[in-house]
Amino acid sequence: MADIFLFFCEGLLYVAVMVALLHLRHLIGLGVFVAALGVLHFIETYLAAVIYVQVPVGFISPGSVVLFSGKLMMILLLYVKEDAATVRQPIYGLLAGNFLTVAFGLLLQQHVGLMTAGHRAADFAFIDEIGWLMIWGTLLLYLDSILIILMYEKIGRYLRGAPGIRFFICGATVLTFDQAGFYLALYLMNGAPAAVFWGGWIAKMVAALFYAVTLGGYLHFLRFAPVNDPDRKLGDIFNTLTFRERYEDLLSRSGRDTLTGVLDRSRFELMAPRLVRNAITSGNNVSLMMIDADHFKNINDRFGHLEGDQVLKSIASALSLGLRQTDHLFRYGGEEFVVVCEGLDPIHATSRANDILQLVTGSVLTPDHMPVTISIGVAGTPGDGETVNALLSAADERLYRAKKQGRNCVVGTVGP
Questions:
Q1: Structure pTM?
Q2: Where in the chain is the domain with CATH 3.30.70.270?
Q3: Is 196 within 8 Å of 59 (Cβ atoms)?
């Protein structure tokens, strides 16, 4: 009973200090809370690897039951009080720090004149073991953290007013997964007996209940109202936790024409084949417009390239206004633009092209206030082919016909 009481005291101390650091984050900074999580990670892994206490349910480790379980619940608490963009910082910080620890340990062993204080033996095998366990534990923590947050939001659709119950359900489920994963590493490295798994699992279930009660009580005492959007999709939360939204933002900023801001030819060559392929697979239409500014060389010759650039920017803006949200506008080269229209057959695409032509003619002017005109060739599946090259070839041929017919017109599959 004395050992169980000590476990209770350790958990209470952990909760008291970590919750206090989190609660005071606006005064002392969130970095104090995050640093405390990181500092405890080594001792947590060491205890989980080598130190166990025998209790009636089996062999359990303070590192695994108190510190790791507590850290996972603290990460969930940080998410509840802040957001996904904030909570991912300690998650990735721990992952990076542990990889650095192992790398440093490997380099340390390469010293030729390495000595130890007090003639102690340097147990590099143990250092390696702890290092790899730290990495494995952190990889599990990474998965655990994402899973527990997504699960918390998922069951929140039904238990929004009961954070303590949600903490317990999520904690018990994810800690079961974690116990299986960490025990597998202990078994492979140290031959840990099954009693370690079962004792640790029962203890983690008790820990989940303990932390759920204490953290739920803390939130109830504060009368805390969640700041996260209850209608936010799980996919959006996952994207934030995994930095996918940063990747998508970077992708959206790359592959854009520096002058007009629309997608450039490299993005066309990347996206267009996929758009056409998906349309063919799903049985939908896809149309392609090839657009060329009429007599653009004359504009450059008369007013200079700077004014010509302004005209191109105005054309791109007008084209964007005339398109649907599902359409994709690319600057193909020079004064040529290409539009890929998902779910639009050639007849309706030709009609929309005529609307775009009128919009450009009515809104884009040369420096001497003369209207700028465009010519458009339209092609579409399945009649003009089922590849990007086939559609481009057909649209380009019709664009040439539009110019032969006097420009400022649209030529599609049903004629001008």
A1: 0.62
A2: 257-411
A3: yes
